[in-house]
Amino acid sequence: MGLRPNLLTRRTAGVATSTLALLVSTAAVGVVPAASAFSAAPAGVCAEPADTHADARVAKGGHAKLDPNHLTAKQVREREADLATAQRERANFRTGAVAPLATVTIPVVVHVIQENSTRAGGNIPDSLINQQITVLNQAYAGSTGGAATAFSFQLTKINRVTNASWYPIVQGSSAERSMKTSLRTGGKNTLNMYLGELSDGLLGWATFPKRTLDKMDGVVVLNESLPGGTATNYNQGDTGTHEIGHWLNLYHTFQGGCSGSGDSVSDTPAEASPAYECPTGRDTCSTAGKDPITNFMDYTYDSCMYQFTAGQASRMLTAWNAYRAA
Ligand SMILES: [Zn+2]
C-alpha cells in the first residue's frame, strides 16, 4: 500500500478534518442500525453495507449472500443483453449524425436531505460537497493511481431540502420514490446525488443506466461518507466514486465470483467475494491475478481503494454512449 501515489495527499486531507470529525463523533454514523438488517432492493439497484466485516467474519466465504442487492447471474445476463440492445439502438440513431463522445463532463445536482438544521440532522457544510466533487474528479481522471476515464464532474447545484419524512433515506421505500420523483432534475446525462442518513447501515446505493429515463435514476450516498465526514474508514469520498461507477454501468469486482464473465471487465481479476478493510495478498480465485482490493468497485476501506482499470473506463464510456449521451 505504500506505493499508492496519492495516499499522502488524501491522508493529509483526512488529518486536516480529523478535529472536526472528533467534534461531531456522535453524529449520524454512530446511530445507524446493525448492518445485518438488510432490506430487499429492487432489481437493478446496488446497495452497499456500511461496515459488514463483522458479519462477513461470521459468514466467511459467504459475504455476497449478506447483500441481497448484489446482482444474480440472471440479472447480469439481462443487463448485458440490454446494453447490447442500447448500443444497437444508438448506432442506428447515430448513423450520419453525432459521433460517440470521447470525453464527458457530467453535471451534478446534489440534493442534501435534512431532518433539521443540525449537522446530525443532515446539514453538512458545502465544503464537504465541494471536496466530494474534487475526489470524484481525481478518481475518474486516474490521478489517484488508476486508469484515466472519460469522465469529469461539474457541480451545478446544491439543493437543500428539509423534510423529516425523507430522513433517513430508506432504500426501496415509498418515501425514497416520493423524494426522487419530487427532486430529480435534468436529462439522462445529469447525475442526481442524494445525501442523507441512510437505512440499514448502508453507505449508498445506485441505479444502473436504463434506456428510458426513470425518476429513480441517481445515486444515494451517506452524507457523512463525504471527504471530512464522520464515517470512520469510509469518509474519503469513495462511496460516491463507487456508486457513480454503478451509475456508469460497472458491476462489483466480485460479481459472479471466480467463474464465468465475472464483472464483464477483462482486466479486473476474478474475486470470490467482497473484500473488506484492507487485506494483504488476498487471492480468492485460482484464476490469474490477486484480488482487486484496491479497485473502487470492491468493498474495502476508502484508504485502500484508489483505482479503476482501463477495462472499466472503456465499459463506462461504452455505456455512456449507449445510455446517457444526449
Ligand atoms: Zn456497489
Automatic annotation (TrEMBL):
<keyword id="KW-0479">Metal-binding</keyword>
<feature type="domain" description="Peptidase M43 pregnancy-associated plasma-A">
    <location>
        <begin position="191"/>
        <end position="318"/>
    </location>
</feature>
<keyword id="KW-0645">Protease</keyword>
<dbReference type="GO" id="GO:0006508">
    <property type="term" value="P:proteolysis"/>
</dbReference>
<dbReference type="GO" id="GO:0008237">
    <property type="term" value="F:metallopeptidase activity"/>
</dbReference>
<dbReference type="InterPro" id="IPR024079">
    <property type="entry name" value="MetalloPept_cat_dom_sf"/>
</dbReference>
<keyword id="KW-0482">Metalloprotease</keyword>
<feature type="signal peptide">
    <location>
        <begin position="1"/>
        <end position="30"/>
    </location>
</feature>
<keyword id="KW-0378">Hydrolase</keyword>
<comment type="similarity">
    <text>Belongs to the peptidase M43B family.</text>
</comment>
<keyword id="KW-1015">Disulfide bond</keyword>
<dbReference type="InterPro" id="IPR008754">
    <property type="entry name" value="Peptidase_M43"/>
</dbReference>
<dbReference type="Pfam" id="PF05572">
    <property type="entry name" value="Peptidase_M43"/>
</dbReference>
<protein>
    <submittedName>
        <fullName>Pregnancy-associated plasma protein-A</fullName>
    </submittedName>
</protein>
<keyword id="KW-0862">Zinc</keyword>
<keyword id="KW-0732">Signal</keyword>
<dbReference type="GO" id="GO:0046872">
    <property type="term" value="F:metal ion binding"/>
</dbReference>
